[in-house]
Amino acid sequence: MKYETYKKLAGATLGKVKADLVFKNCKIVDVFTGEVVESCVAVKDGTILGVSKSYEGKKEIDLGGAYIAPGFIDAHLHLESTMVAPAELVATAAACGTTTFVVDPHEAANVSGADGINYILDQTENSDANVFVMMPSCVPATDIDDNGCMIAANDMYPFIGNPRILGLGEVMDDDAVINGNPRMFAKFALFEHQTIDGHAPFLPNKMLSAYKLAGVDTDHEASSFEYALEEARRGIHVHVREGSAAHNVDDIVRGLVRTGIDTDYFSFCTDDKHIEDILREGHIVYNVRRAVELGLDPFKAIKMATINTAKCYGLKQLGAIAPGYQADFVIFDNMKDFNVLDVYFKGKKIDKEANVKVKKCPSALKHTVNISKVKASDFALPIDNSTTHVIGMEPKQIVTSDLTEHFSKTENFVPHDGYLKIAAVERHHNSGKIGVAVTKGYGIQGGAIASSVSHDSHNIIVIGDNDEDIAIAVNEIARVQGGYTVVQNGKVYETLPLPVMGLMTDVHFEEVNEKLKVMKEKAYEMGVSKDFDPFITLSFMALTVIPELRVTPRGLYRVSDKGSGFIK
Amino acid sequence: MKYETYKKLAGATLGKVKADLVFKNCKIVDVFTGEVVESCVAVKDGTILGVSKSYEGKKEIDLGGAYIAPGFIDAHLHLESTMVAPAELVATAAACGTTTFVVDPHEAANVSGADGINYILDQTENSDANVFVMMPSCVPATDIDDNGCMIAANDMYPFIGNPRILGLGEVMDDDAVINGNPRMFAKFALFEHQTIDGHAPFLPNKMLSAYKLAGVDTDHEASSFEYALEEARRGIHVHVREGSAAHNVDDIVRGLVRTGIDTDYFSFCTDDKHIEDILREGHIVYNVRRAVELGLDPFKAIKMATINTAKCYGLKQLGAIAPGYQADFVIFDNMKDFNVLDVYFKGKKIDKEANVKVKKCPSALKHTVNISKVKASDFALPIDNSTTHVIGMEPKQIVTSDLTEHFSKTENFVPHDGYLKIAAVERHHNSGKIGVAVTKGYGIQGGAIASSVSHDSHNIIVIGDNDEDIAIAVNEIARVQGGYTVVQNGKVYETLPLPVMGLMTDVHFEEVNEKLKVMKEKAYEMGVSKDFDPFITLSFMALTVIPELRVTPRGLYRVSDKGSGFIK
Description:
Two copies of one chain form a homodimer. Helices cover 26% and strands 26% of the residues of chain A.
């Protein structure tokens, strides 16, 4: 601790003067020893001074025997994918007990590079929460992507030493790691003394060892206990994910309970959790509650939400209730239901009803859709006599299948019998690149849906049953500079603008939600299968790292063929 | 991992080429999950590649079902106090399974400053073990000490960034911490991102909180479970000590077993363990074995000897068997007796019979006793009519009591009836300072014993029943430039030279031990109480941080009076 800080805190710590705030009559969850200690907690200047029944405070709060635990930590999440303003998501989750966020802004980075990362840092700087950032490692995701900006090791230098940057963000390009790509290792070298997050859902035994050997410290993609165990045995810290889309707590925690293995190398994360889900069931506290419901020891669960994660990211002042730790607390009624009564950040109670002030977005980040006007004929797709590969959209999944069909030879494929057109329009550099393909399973009739949220390069992705509506939808996205749109019979039905990098809104989330609800209903009415979220599922159809077929601005791409996967 | 290193290791990790070495048929102690995994361990270039039954090696070692655990770590020890050459002690302990040492060279620093620290670094550099150093924080121990060198924060700069320096060594001056001494905090600031070792045997509740708040991370002085628990609750990492003098494992581990609290913040250390004890019962493996004997879960015990400590000191590549970790192993027969079969350092088997090459000591470090010849009259101690304070030496302890006696007025006190003379002679700067006092309990008759090992300033300490023999003993220490000597009836009986800073030998330990045995026998024959080690107990009689009376070159000192404690 710095001399000046200690001098300010010493008197109250030693009990010579009163602390700013003392929590009396509390059950303290001690994450070091795994005990509940009945005592009082003294706080000054946002720092915990100590635990003792004899502390007195200028202000005293009687917790009436409630539990007080360290504020929870989300080990890995993206803010952009929730579409709402970063500060708003953080505030909503903080009110549920998550006081620390380890954020990977790789969507923003794919659109706007360093400016995108700085936007996330800036927007969350004065939040009532600790928001840390992992430097996006895979921008673009692969060499064949057309994204907005590239971030090489050199581009990361300005961020080195920033105390809010904790390391390198999820390394999705496992090939580059395992095959020893020097550009990837240049990034690893920059963060060798910090934490390197992984993303390794499918690696077999020795490849997983190589991935760890190279320097990867964590992974949040384990969806089965067996895989999580393989990771933990290698010293890969497993972030057990429970978000809006991925639900991994049940399988992994059941395994933890069944085997009784140590949980030191396990933490909790959400990855992506939408604001309405947070409001409904909570944030990291939901992972904790569910884990305990499944039989996990409550101390283990709380440690997975606090000290384990703090240690994983070298956050020496977070995750515990002890002298010198930051006074972030979650207060709850019992160690079973975990009903959150109050949350404190730096010793101040979080006001759940407070309005979040969303900072103004720099103008450049609101002008990121850079295309010339398109016309229906830009989406022509000639069919020859050979086999046509069709993107098979699978119910409730983002993986796709490689369907082969025989269509009649034509200058321009006409959607029919559930076969639709899907296209990716490069939108960052006005290169004019448009890739068109056939897809099946989505189900829209008499219109088109388009989005500028399209992982990971965030070009415009559009799907429809006729070229005219497809062109109208793309032009509408350009007009509003990013968002979602639904077009029906030659007319824009409704558009949700997401002007911040084409990914996020800068208005309050209620407005977004209202419009989104109407648009989703319309999409289903137009025939979109209920097995999909019309916009979220669509947003993954250009993602070149998840099997199997994807459409990109360069054309149809088979993921398993890697760099050579373009299909003529 | 560096690109070049990964490239060298990747092929074997992926199983494309053979590893250098594969341990087959082993029970791997997995410190991440707390399991025993039956598999094989592959190694190349001193690094663990991975664990898999299908690995093949250029060399394969069948362990026949034996256990393989990460090499043990001693969380805190001093090499100087064992008197043998550092490399020899390290080699002896390594052969017992301790492959990593976190060393505090504060004795060497008190005599020779940075040169003393560099000596320890240099002597252990090519050991078959990882030897790390903590920067001594209290040199001198207090402001009233006359030691050889002072190490202020400025003097520590040259060591910052050295990968073998892990942080700040045991902060004995708890007053300086708790009262916010800016010079102490300047040292803390230098190591704020590393580990700061504590030394806090006696701090009550709020003072212990303040000590932790200031930034202290560890302590190895806890001798009771209750105190250790108070420390762990504050996030102070407790090093459970079992050495030649201090035996804390029993009490602390009994408490751990009784309460079942988490042991994440507990490690093992020896602090000071003599080579003959190491040879008899082992080193850190003894702590492990004894803890398991007392009922501690063997995985917890092994973690306290491996990964817990590695994490405490930020040693990312040590303490586990997983890809990228250093190939340091201890192999034993079962998880109860822990009979060590073999030890590997960086994938190479440690040869227990190998001769240790002791590097030559720089000449300056062998000439550190700098005094003019003394004579009997230098030890005259006038007694007036008032009370005389006498250092009461307590059986089997290093604390002393403050006895008050009434002696007849005299120009020079004459030892009688068990009352002896004890003196401290400043030996670093030839200042001529000699402090003389009366002591009781030691028991020598007809001679004197002197030593240049005298914590922490390492002046010459001498005790005897007549001034002539006292002077002879001091002059003998100066003649050999440091060591132990026994003088009887005007003649030197025997001297053990410890020429390296007056603390250590540079010959092999057998020679030391042989001579020491003879000298101890003589001391007991001359009347020294069997309740004391004649030399070790004596070496603490000038230590101004342990209660109650001490003799220093500036005179008799009462520890509880702090800086103002000199007694006229």
